[in-house]
Design a protein that fits this description.
A five-stranded antiparallel β-sheet has the order 1-4-9-6-7, with no helix packed on it. It is built from two helices and ten strands; from the N terminus they run αββββββββββα. 14% of the residues lie in helices and 38% in strands. Helix 1 runs antiparallel to helix 2. The chain is globular, with a radius of gyration of 19 Å. With 203 residues, the protein is mainly beta.
Amino acid sequence: MRLSVGLLSLLLFVIPAQAQLLNADMEDQDSGVFGWVKNWSVTGGGWADHATFARANSETLGEKFAFWSANLDQILGQVSSWTFAPNTTYTFTSWAIGGGNDIGIVPYQIGYLEGGTNIATNFVELATQTYDVTGQGGWALLPGVSYTTGSDGPEIGQPIVVRFGGVNQGGDSDIWVDNASLTPEPASLVLVLLGGLAVLRRR
């Protein structure tokens, strides 16, 4: 039993907290409404407030959200303070809705920068997942995108970059997002510890 408690404690220790995305909840803004989104690099778009642009399921999302124009292929992204580690799965997700007209496609991307610091032109894509939110009718937590590193690769040690937008966004609409997260999971170690707990439980 003592060993089981020890394994459980270790399991809790190695499951990491959410990686550091600044202003992930979009609440901390320096500009006025429709201004630039603080701590996020954008090629357009801005932020607005839930009270003025009320949609279903926003009760837990705070006061503000971010948006960009899909028809202009604008991008909302951030260079995380975390770097890619070997043998780790990274998941980038958020709440989203198809903007004022309830249409559009939300692209989630994970990657890194190469040859410069421009989040639009120096981005190296590692994984992309898109979601059609047309007719969704309210805010929803989308699964986002995941990427798993190997034991080595050009991304290892590079800052993790996450992006909304830039590809296949479904035409004439704007996309709204809120409460983004980037979560790393050292899946192999977690599975080993869970297996150990299962064996001890049988005993």
